């Protein structure tokens, strides 16, 4: 079982930066694709970016450039560096992990979410 623990959320002024961190506990035996999503009240959870064990990234186009995903595979930790933040970036940010078993079944895991609030 993989347990995702996020940290780094908070309140920041528009134009500022913030870095989120997520540790994938119990994931040492798996090849995990890690990522970040976000959600605002009444809306669906939207993908921000994912990163594979090989370091291949996949971003939502509208966020590419301001948001950067990276990982430390030794620590099984994923980061989201956010810059030039806007009030519309205010959301709960969720860490995500995905693995595929030997019989090709996909398992997905979610963190508890961390609030990011961007003040104008």
Task: Write a structural description.
By secondary structure, the protein is mainly beta. It has strands spanning 3-7, 10-13, 18-25, 33-39, 46-51, 57-59, 67-72, 77-82, 91-100, 106-110, 114-119. The strands form two sheets. Strands 2, 4, 5, 6, 9, 10 and 11 form a seven-stranded mixed beta sheet that branches. A four-stranded antiparallel beta sheet has the order 1-3-8-7, with no helix packed on it. β9 (91-100) and β10 (106-110) form a beta hairpin. The radius of gyration is 14 Å and the shape is elongated.
Taken from the alpha-carbon principal axes, the silhouette is elongated
Please outline the major beta sheet.
7 strands, mixed
N-to-C series of helices and strands:
EEEEEEEEEEE
Q: Helix segment count?
A: 0
Quaternary form:
single chain
Proportion of β residues?
A: over 45%
Helix content: under 10%
Number of extended strands: 11
* End-to-end gap: 40 Å
Index terms:
four-stranded antiparallel β-sheet, mainly beta, seven-stranded mixed β-sheet, elongated
What is the secondary structure topology, with strand pairs?
Elements: E1 3-7, E2 10-13, E3 18-25, E4 33-39, E5 46-51, E6 57-59, E7 67-72, E8 77-82, E9 91-100, E10 106-110, E11 114-119
Parallel strand pairs: 2-11
Antiparallel strand pairs: 1-3, 3-8, 4-5, 4-9, 5-6, 7-8, 9-10, 9-11
Write a brief caption for the model:
By secondary structure, the chain is mostly beta strands.
